[in-house]
Amino acid sequence: MSLRLSTVILPYRRWHEGGRSAWVRAQRLGFHTAYTYDHLSWRSFRDGPWFGAVPTLTAAAAVTDRIRLGTLVTSPNFRHPVTLAKELISLDDISGGRITLGIGAGGTGFDATALGQEPWTPRERADRFAEFVALLDRLLTQDAVSYEGDFYSAHEARTVPGCVQRPRLPFAVAATGPRGLRLAAEHGQAWVTTGDPKLYEDGTPEQSVRALRGQVERLAEACAAIGRDVSTLDKILLTGFTPDRNRPLRSLDAFVDFAGRHRELGFTEIVIHWPIPDSDFAADEKVFERIAVEAPAQLD
Fold it and tell me: Average pLDDT of the chain?
C-alpha cells in the first residue's frame, strides 16, 4: 500500500485572511486529508485567534470537493456524544462523505477546565473516553438511541438520516495505552499516534522508532484479542511531537528518509503541520510544497 501524505491546518487565521486559501491549496497540492485540531484554545496560541473546528471544516467542505477532511483530534473534554453526532452527520452530508473523525481521550490542557470543571484524572479520562466512543458509534449508526451510562445519557436521540458514509464516517482513534488501543481495535477504522511523549525532550529518533514499533505491536495484540486483522486498521502518525520535531520538513530528502523509516513500521499515513511562522511548526513553504507534490511518488 502506498503511504498517504496528509496535513493538519491549525484554525488560527481568519477565514478571509488566509484561512480559506490554506484549505484550497491543500487540495491543489494533493494531500490525502486535511485535518484541524478540535480545541477551544491550544498551548502558545491561547491568547491569539483560534476558531472552532466544526465551522472551519464546514467552510472547508464548501470550498473543496476531493480532499478528505477531519479532526485530529476531538475529545470528550468539551463535547457530548449526542450533540457531536448531529454536527458530524451534518458535516458528512455537506462534504459529500469526506469526513474522518479523529478522536482521543483528551488531556489536561485549557480544554479540560474551560467549562468550569476540575481536570479529570487519567483513569476518569479513560473511562469517559470508552463510554464516549461506544455511544457515539451507536448514535452514528442507529436512527434513535436511548442510553444511561456513568457519564453520558441519551433519551430517544434521533440521528436521521445518518452519515453519507456507511455504516458511519470513519473513526481514527488516538491511543497508546492498553484501553485506548482496545478501543481502536473495536471501533476504529484508523489508529493515531504522536509517538512517545517521554522522548520528545531528550530522546533520539532511534529511540522514537523503537517506541513506535512497540506501539504498533501492542495494537496488533489488541486486534488479535478480538479476532481482527490489524492490517484492516490504518495507522496514522501525526508528526512534530517525536524527537525529530520539525527536522523532516527541512528538505525533501529528509522527509522521504523519515517517512520511509516509519512506513517500514507499518504506518499508512503521515500527517505534517501546515507551516506557521514563528512557531514550533515553522517551515519553508517552498520545501513544504515540494514535499507535498514530490514525496508521495518517492514513497510508492
Answer: 97
